[in-house]
Amino acid sequence: MTTSDSEFNPDLLIAHKLPETRYTYNERDVAIYALGVGACGQDAVDSDELKYVYHENGQEHIQVLPTFASLLTLGSLSNGLDLPGFKYDPSLLLHGQQYIEIYRPLPSKASLINKVSLAGLQDKGKAAILELETRSYEQGSDELLCMNRTTAFLRGAGGFSNSSQPFSYKNYPSNQGLAVKIPQTQPSAVCEERTQPSQALLYRLSGDYNPLHSDPAFAKLAGFPRPILHGLCTLGFAIKGIIKCICKGDPSAVKTISGRFLATVFPGETLITEMWLQGLRVIYQTKVKERNKAVLSGYVDIRGLSSSL
Ligand SMILES: CCCCCCC/C=C/C(=O)SCCNC(=O)CCNC(=O)[C@H](O)C(C)(C)COP(=O)(O)OP(=O)(O)OC[C@H]1O[C@@H](n2cnc3c(N)ncnc32)[C@H](O)[C@@H]1OP(=O)(O)O
């Protein structure tokens, strides 16, 4: 939502302290998320994916996809993006990038405390870039479980710099979350998966109810012919494919995830993720098959593999 302040005020925004929030989830949330990013979407008994939604010994044993951590971004905002000194049109907001560090595999249920801070603000002229960092701790233990850094690309909100230099603030290392260079060699593995026409309607049940992904009239207002897929849903498909093809199905192998959303995806389109293993880093690129269009690229750092591919 927009603020009541009439001016875009970067100093006010940077000085603002966001409140700590609590986020509680359980095995049902974990399974609904996994279905939202296509687990068992092509085959209900897929042995690589059933573990994310069902376990024969009880739901407490289901495995959690590392990208479940990304839900903590929106889940940690008590008031959406209603921030002092910050004006934007919510229909023009797009998800630009996501960076996730996972320090310990996520439990199948937990109560977390989130500490949110502003990590970046840039004036790109035609757009403003706003980055929020969320550090999530297990309640009671003070153990840091994961960190998310989310980049919002706010079309039409740029041009707020008062000096001749475009405003640029970043409080994290420049080697994190950058667009990657895609190798010109054959990929180590390729994963293809069709999203369902109803994919965004299912994914939104994990907490992102932005009408951009469900309401045809709102999508048109935002400049799209129909509702688009959540960026984090595309990311979930891609990382699930990397776990299957490179990590031998072990979601706990994933340490760091970085992704930049390059173009929009429409629910029902087929995603092809190409991946290149370089030491303990997987460079990846996801394309929409029907339009041969790159929609996401990034890297995944893994903890190590028991044997070679
Ligand atoms: C903070 C918490 C809020 C979270 C909200 C989450 C809500 C979720 C919404 C969604 O899921 S929306 C769906 C997913 N996202 C998308 O579909 C976006 C796909 N990408 C695009 O459509 C385009 O890439 C773009 C973002 C519109 C940008 O394209 P454009 O052609 O306008 O940019 P450029 O002219 O190439 O670059 C301008 C400037 O911006 C930088 N930049 C470009 N793309 C991105 C990006 N994805 N993320 C961050 N920054 C980006 C680019 O480097 C240029 O900067 P300079 O080089 O000039 O400094």
UniProtKB/TrEMBL annotation:
Superkingdom, natural source: Eukaryota
Pfam families: MaoC_dehydratas, MFE-2_hydrat-2_N
Species of origin: Eruca vesicaria subsp. sativa
Swiss-Prot/TrEMBL GO biological process terms: fatty acid beta-oxidation
Domain MaoC-like: residue ranges: 183-295
Domain Peroxisomal multifunctional enzyme type 2-like N-terminal: 23-156
Alphabetized UniProt keyword annotations: Lipid metabolism, Lyase
Record-linked SUPFAM superfamilies: Thioesterase/thiol ester dehydrase-isomerase (SSF54637)
Name of the protein in question: MaoC-like domain-containing protein
One function term, GO molecular function aspect: lyase activity
